[in-house]
Design a protein that fits this description.
72% of the residues lie in helices and 0% in strands. It binds heme-as.
Length: 542
């Protein structure tokens, strides 16, 4: 692996993992507070911890990890090393994001930005928190442009050739990110900065929430797409098989690009200020964005089965036995896939209007995203870490690391089973999310929730032990003997059909994406600007 690129990748991954450890401490404390097991000292607030947890894990850990991982694959598959200008862009992006993260974290620790990771109005933070967010966003844009530049250069040099799948997927991921972050940049720059500095007196709450969720939903796919890169490109190689279909893999990425953005209203189904027709339209589009995940499930099963049969597996499920169960590069992401089945089903429940009325703002939703992002995504990222660090530092991945990594994965799954299981269950009983310890004046209903909150805390403790083991394992990764660890990139199966070239015609996809976004958002946003939806007066301006 190129030495200079290795440094770049390591900087991103290590910083991501540092954010993970600090965020995990906040998570542990918060689950203990919520269950009533501990009381925080007066100067630390529950919501302050909750903000630190959400921002450090949801926004910082993920973004740094993803950009580091994408750059590693872009370097590997598009020419063997990054162009100098691209590497410079990536470093500028890194430093800007780092500056934003440090500034943001300091403000959260000073209790000047206790606005949760969703930070929409009417909660207000110090103006410098929003400036920190701008640094984070602009930094990620510059990094994204670096990915595009390397890809564009490769295509110029390789006219007529199909780009490597990893690179295509990285471009799609960053393209979706660039389009989605326009929404959050708009609310931060046009609404929050003027409001928090006191230059304007009011803020349009509906618009701020809508612009946030315009970004907030594709944000979850920004977490998911790199996971899909691992499942589509890396896992087939790790199991000694082939990628089932390059065309299907690309199609699923394009579908996510198109349908992940015009769906933010499914987070706002219970809000006034949006006409029900637009909610309905966006729910329909939400069900469209499920299709690429079903395609992904099909493709992975196909890849497992084909490789199993090649190894001589017999019967309907014989291929399961020949999967490499002792290999952490497979095991951790596999557990992520398995968990994604109930996690995705939970998403479908959330997206259904009537059922959303039952689960919205309850711990069910917290349970949902601990299965999706904190399990499927996190476990896949752990699986990647175990081979990526040795691969870029020229060290040999040993059996001991496989064992340690598998133990850490199992601990994570057990902790999450308790935590997320209890969250889903008690959510259905009505226990609200985002509340500190309370018995609502010893109301019997609320007292009946408490045992579940204790189970959540037990799960939280097991998860924290898993995080400590991850930290130990990471130190071991840097102590591995010098040697070679493969950067696993799968090949496409011979039986796969040819990939249609229009999948790489970005002009078409960007145009369709813009049309869908305008269709789903233009009129409801105009209504919000004009304060025109009956029943929402007084809700809009704060
Ligand atoms: Fe979600 C809320 C709907 C997916 C994250 N979601 C959230 C929040 C987060 C989040 C963070 O419609 C909370 C935001 C907040 O703070 O308020 N979500 C969905 C839907 C999907 C979905 C329809 N969510 C995700 C993913 C996330 C994520 C992915 C992170 C990475 N979500 C919602 C809705 C809400 C919501 C509402 C708002 C709720 C409210 O009221 O506030 C879909 O994309 C899910 C599709 C997935 C599948 C599963 C496919 C399975 C695969 C694995 C195959 C396994 C194999 C291995 C092959 C259909 C690909 C098996 C092998 C064997 C041997 C068995």
């Amino acid at each position: 692996f190129d030495h200079k690129d290795s440094k770049l990748v390591l900087a991103h991954i290590i910083f991501a993992l540092i954010a993970l450890f600090i965020g995990a401490i906040a998570g542990l404390l918060q689950s203990l507070v919520k269950s009533g097991a501990i009381t925080l000292p007066a100067e630390i607030g529950y919501y302050q911890l909750l903000t630190a947890h959400g921002v450090l894990l949801g926004l910082v850990f993920t973004t740094f990890f993803i950009i580091g991982f994408l750059y590693s694959g872009v370097s590997k598959t598009l020419g063997g090393k990054l162009m100098n200008s691209v590497r410079i862009m990536a470093w500028i992006g890194f430093w800007l994001m780092l500056a934003g993260t440090i500034l943001g974290t300091i403000l959260i620790l000073l209790n000047k930005a206790t606005v949760l990771y969703t930070f929409y109005a009417p909660l207000q933070a110090s103006p410098y928190f929003y400036i920190a967010l701008v640094l984070l966003i602009v930094g990620s844009w510059i990094s994204g442009f670096g990915v595009f530049k390397q890809y564009y250069h490769w295509r110029k040099m390789n006219k007529g050739k199909l780009s490597p799948l990893f690179a295509f997927m990285s471009v799609t991921t960053m393209l979706m990110w660039q389009i989605a972050t326009i929404g959050v940049a708009a609310t931060v720059i046009l609404q929050f900065i003027p409001w928090s500095f006191g230059w304007v007196e009011t803020i349009n709450v509906m618009l701020s929430r809508t612009l946030f969720w315009y970004f907030g939903h594709p944000l979850v796919y920004f977490w998911l797409l790199p996971v899909y890169i691992c499942w589509y490109v890396v896992i087939p190689k790790v199991i000694g098989g082939k990628i089932f279909s390059d065309a299907l893999a690309r199609l699923s990425f394009i579908l996510i690009l198109l349908f992940s953005i015009p769906v933010g209203f499914h987070h706002q189904l219970m809000e006034p200020g949006i006409n029900s027709f637009w909610k309905y339209l966006q729910v329909v589009l939400t069900f469209m964005v499920v299709i690429p995940s079903l395609i992904t499930a099909f493709s992975i099963f196909a890849s497992f089965e084909l490789s199993g049969r090649e190894k001589g597996a017999k019967g309907l499920f014989g291929w399961v036995k020949v999967l490499p169960w002792n290999d952490v590069r497979f095991f951790a992401p596999f557990m992520g896939m398995l968990i994604f089945i109930p996690a995705g089903a939970g998403g479908l429940i959330n997206a259904s209007n009537q059922m959303n009325a039952v689960v919205h703002n309850t711990l069910w939703v917290t349970g949902h995203f601990h299965l999706t992002v904190a399990s499927s995504v996190a476990l896949t990222f752990f699986g990647i870490t175990y081979w990526l660090i040795p691969a870029v530092t020229n060290r040999l991945l040993t059996k001991k690391i496989h064992r340690l990594g598998i133990t850490q994965t199992i601990l994570w799954c057990v902790g999450m089973f308790f935590m997320s299981g209890a969250m889903h269950t008690v959510g259905l009983f009505g226990s609200p999310r985002r509340t500190a310890y309370t018995t609502y004046g010893d109301h019997p209903e609320s007292l009946s929730w408490l045992p579940y909150h204790v189970v959540m805390a037990i799960g939280g403790i097991i998860l924290f032990i898993s995080t400590l083991l991850l930290a130990y394992n990471l130190i071991q990764l840097f102590r591995l003997p010098k040697g070679y660890t493969e950067y696993p990139i799968g090949e496409v199966a011979e039986s796969a059909e040819e990939t249609p070239r229009f999948l790489e015609r970005w002009g078409i996809w960007i145009t369709i994406s813009v049309v869908l976004i305008l269709t789903a958002y233009a009129i409801p946003m105009m209504d919000m600007l004009n304060n025109q939806v009956p029943g929402s007066e007084g809700y809009i301006l704060w």
